[in-house]
Amino acid sequence: MNGHPPRLIQGLWCATLTPVTERGAIDHRRFAAHAHHLFAQGVDGIAPFGTTGEGQSFSVAERREGLDALLAAGVPAARIVVGTGCASLAETIELTRHAVGAGCTGCLVLPPFFWKEPADDGLFAWYARLVEGVADARLRIVLYHLPQVSAVPLSVDFVARLAAAFPGIVAGIKDSEGKWEHTQALLTRVPQLTVVIGHEPDLPRLMRAGGAGTICGVANVYPGLVRALLSPGVAASDEARIAKFIEILFSVPFLAGFKCMLADRSGDDGWRNLRPPLLPLTADQQRKLRELLVQGGFPR
Amino acid sequence: MNGHPPRLIQGLWCATLTPVTERGAIDHRRFAAHAHHLFAQGVDGIAPFGTTGEGQSFSVAERREGLDALLAAGVPAARIVVGTGCASLAETIELTRHAVGAGCTGCLVLPPFFWKEPADDGLFAWYARLVEGVADARLRIVLYHLPQVSAVPLSVDFVARLAAAFPGIVAGIKDSEGKWEHTQALLTRVPQLTVVIGHEPDLPRLMRAGGAGTICGVANVYPGLVRALLSPGVAASDEARIAKFIEILFSVPFLAGFKCMLADRSGDDGWRNLRPPLLPLTADQQRKLRELLVQGGFPR
To answer: Where are the domains of chain A?
Structure first.
């Protein structure tokens, strides 16, 4: 699609998994190696500490150190959109300021997710104070709509209001609800925003409708498959393949499923660990996942 | 009721409001004055940084400083049960260890509230790592069941399992769901726990059934009314009165309503402030609340 405004990001971005040790510490070496491996496979950028990255299971200090370690390992800040949302505003400001100072392309910011059914005026005040608190013209916010987990939706009206109030600063939205009507309304109502989605099967129609691309979890394990969904000439067989893969993935707790796949593929059992309250797959779940992947024709 | 095991707390505890400045900083002086005022009115103890205290809107550093300031202002640690739950385990350990080190009677711990529908095994692992991470025999956990806000319920089976695994350490539960059947099941199934509730109208039957008392919000504004509900000879008129008060309170956003009442009563407008995404009452809401209170016979 021609004529779209400049985009903050586009193409294939990976909602990066966070490798942790058995006791739950971030494994910085494995984390950076995964990022470089993704780039080598054609991934355009990474989004650490989103939901797939178990961002809310890490402290502010761990998230700062995790980002710093990626940068120190040669991951370019220009290829990072980092999850900086926290339950509290003060901590969201701290992480966002740190990411902006490090030169990251954008910050993925959940709404404050403890308080349910907040008034739009209250949510607006929260994001406005974030912008004021960071106080840096380089700030680029990617709003994060994930109501099935955050339990705090961002309505299209609210997104439009915020984007109008902070042009350029509120630069995009990751719509991970997986409801096409919501995505479509965003594309129409807030065309100045960079719209990316998390639900991979919707990518072909997103690209046809002028969306920017994806920040998604499947890119951790099958980046080539996601890339195929972004191309104008996407094949029906690729659309069937992603649908099949998502069906298999959701037959187990899916974040643990992703990690199991990376562990199986790399022979590196450390990838199986998650932070409580999330758990690694049980032996039975692992067997089931492997069988379904083989049956579905998904290579390691 | 005779024969109950030793209780961690009992009687009238206040889920303390947190006064903040217009820019959202905790007003330590006003906070301590409020605590002392509550004690002077017969409140047994305070529970800062719970939900009524907007705990999740403050950073770890602010919550530490807030507790330290209360202690420095002469609030006895023995009269404090402090909210130390956070979305992340590492930060929950930090706040809990700080509270235990300060000698607080107990720590009120929400489940990790970002992840929805966690497996009980995962929740168990989370609380187990909290106990290991704090590594202090003085630790006393009060579980915090508030599914209508946290979106993560603690089932009776789960509470029983956790209490059995950590006897003495898992010492109580604040059941703030407001469903009597859940409270009753806790009293029956986990009699070794100190059971307190948040929903004031259930207090008479809680006390008849052997419950320990309350940690509640109404104690910020009408501690005498709550005290009456705890006495064996509670009058029907007091039961009617609390029902009426709750009805009035819920006619506005209720945390802001509490703060408005304290502001009106003290003449101290600073009490009106809340942290985003929560907002102070609008002028219309304030008028409505004042009218209903006058009509209901609730004195300033």
So the answer is: 11-234
User: Do the bridges between strand A213-216 and strand B11-14 make them parallel or antiparallel, or are there none, so unpaired?
Assistant: unpaired
Beta bridge partners of B57: none
Structure tokens given for A235? 């094949």
Which residue is associated with the tokens 């700080």?
B98
Across residues B143-157, what is the average pLDDT?
98
> Residues near B180 by Cβ (< 8 Å), separated by ≥ 6?
B202, B205
Check: CB of residue A220 under 8 Å from CB of residue A258.
yes
Quick one: pLDDT at residue A4? 65
Closest to A277 (Cβ–Cβ): which among B112, B150, B253? B112
Determine the pLDDT at residue A1: 43
Which residues in A lie closer than 8 A to residue B90 (C-beta atoms)? 58-59, 61-62
Through-space distance between the first and last CA atoms of chain B, rounded to whole angstroms? 35
8 Å CB contact of B56 and A88: yes
Residues 6+ apart with CB under 8 A from B135: none
The verdict on a CB contact (< 8 Å) between B118 and A89 is: no
Q: Give, to the nearest 10 degrees, the angle between helix A236-249 and helix A283-295.
A: 170
Q: Would you give the DSSP letter of residue B113?
A: -
| A116 in reach of chain B (CB within 8 A) | yes
Q: What CATH code is assigned to B11-233?
A: 3.20.20.70
- CA nearest to A255 within chain B: B115
pLDDT for A292 equals: 98
A277 with B119: Cβ contact below 8 A: yes
CA distance A23 to chain B (A): 9
A11-234 folds as TIM Barrel (3.20.20)
DSSP class of B167: B
User: B277 and A123 in contact by Cβ < 8 A?
Assistant: yes
Lookup: tokens for B212? 């320990």
Average pLDDT over chain A, rounded to an integer: 97
Compare CB distances from A116 to B24, B91, B151 and report the shortest one's residue: B151
Locate A192 and state its tokens.
């100045």
How many CA atoms are closer than 13 Å to the CA of A63, on its beta-carbon side? 31
Top-confidence residue, A1 or B300: B300
pTM assigned to the model = 0.97
Contacts 24+ apart (CB under 8 A), B96-102: B96/B130, B96/B134, B96/B139, B96/B141, B97/B133, B97/B134, B97/B136, B98/B64, B98/B67, B99/B67, B100/B134, B100/B136, B100/B138, B100/B139, B101/B136, B102/B67, B102/B68, B102/B71, B102/B77
Inter-chain residue contact B88 with A59, CB threshold 8 Å: yes
**Structure token pair of residue B143:** 């579980």
Which pairing describes strands A81-83 and B45-46: parallel, antiparallel, or unpaired? unpaired
| A and B: number of Cβ contacts within 8 A | 122
Q: Which two tokens stand for residue A91?
A: 């901590």
CA atoms within 13 A on the CB side of A271: 21
Q: Is the pLDDT of residue B2 over 50?
A: no
Six-digit token string for A257: 């499923």
Q: Closest partner residue to A275 among B24, B89, B121, by Cβ?
A: B89
Q: Where are the beta strands (DSSP E) in chain B?
A: 11-14, 45-46, 81-83, 106-109, 141-145, 170-175, 194-197, 213-216
Distance from CA of B71 to the nearest CA of A (A): 23
Pick from B120, B96, B94: which is nearest to B108 by CA?
B96
User: Could you give the C-alpha distances from A30 to A15, A79, A129, A279, B150, in angstroms and in order?
Assistant: 16, 18, 36, 19, 33
